[in-house]
Design a protein that fits this description.
The protein is of the alpha/beta class. The chain has a single domain, classed as Rossmann fold (3-Layer(aba) Sandwich). The chain contains ten helices and seven strands. It starts with 32 loop residues before the first helix and ends with a helix.
């Protein structure tokens, strides 16, 4: 590691965000959870709200967010992060409350909590990591698994006649009146990572201005679960996931669009 004492501040263009801990990453090579962690930490730091932010980490790979983002955290039961975040925000309305959830947690066991938090317009923010698979528990089929995609529980590929189609959460949540800001971004290249950071910032601004429920869905990689190399996983995401889960803004309420970010 290069000592910060020998870095010329005038030349420094990329440094560890103050909201990111020094904890070495445990994630598999090629996993973009680490990228998402950095973006959240950067945004909270740049907004100067680290000292009043509270994250909610549920079950799955997402649970370890509290090891890396240097702010207060609580751990929720599987799928219950939006419910816990709702309680925290109602009791402590001045705090910036967010959940960090994977697709299995948010779109399967936690589907009801997610939908009803959005329907009620709870003033919380959800960072939703969609890698189309259950990463932590062995690579099983998730609600977002693509048609024909092979997993440990669908070794012949997802059969839509037997198992249905993948659920597109951003599109569904955007239909609810309580949602203020619902977008989908990706983490597969620098351009899209920059766009993801801007979306995360606007989601937190939505909350700070009391404009309702906000969610940023981030298409992410799982090289281990997908059975590809880290480099191949980025290409796989772009080639297969982006067409299935189109990037874009699915709901930006007029009050959110009026924010000057």
């Amino acid at each position: 590691m290069v000592s910060t004492a020998i870095i010329n501040p005038t030349n420094l263009v990329y440094a560890r965000p103050r909201g990111l801990t020094q904890t070495p990453s445990h994630y598999c090579p090629g996993c973009t959870h680490g990228t998402a962690h950095r973006l959240v930490a950067e945004v909270l730091g740049e907004m100067n709200v680290l000292d009043r932010a509270i994250g909610v980490a549920p079950v799955g790979c997402a649970v370890f967010a509290y090891n890396y983002i240097d702010t207060d955290f609580v751990e929720a039961a599987h799928g219950r992060a939006p419910a816990m975040a709702t309680g925290i925000k109602r009791v402590l309305p001045d705090r910036v409350v967010f959940t960090y959830q994977g697709d299995g947690d948010l779109a399967s066991i936690g589907m009801a909590e997610t939908v009803h938090a959005a329907a009620r317009g709870e003033n919380i923010t959800i960072i939703f990591i969609n890698n189309a698979i259950y990463g932590m528990t062995g690579g099983q089929m998730a609600p977002t698994t693509l048609p024909g995609m092979k997993t440990t529980s669908s070794p012949n590929g997802r059969d839509v006649e037997a198992q249905g189609f993948p659920i597109r959460m951003a599109e569904m949540l955007a239909t609810l009146d309580g949602a203020g800001y619902i977008v989908r971004r990706s983490l597969h290249d620098p351009k899209n990572i920059r766009l993801a950071k801007k979306a995360i910032r606007l989601a937190f601004e939505t909350q700070l201005h009391g404009l309702g429920f906000s969610l940023v869905e981030l298409l992410s990689t799982c090289s281990t679960g997908w059975g590809v190399s880290p480099v191949e996983s980025l290409a796989w995401l772009e080639e297969h996931m982006v067409p299935a889960f189109p990037l874009g803004d699915y709901k930006v309420a007029p009050s959110v669009a009026a924010l000057k970010i």
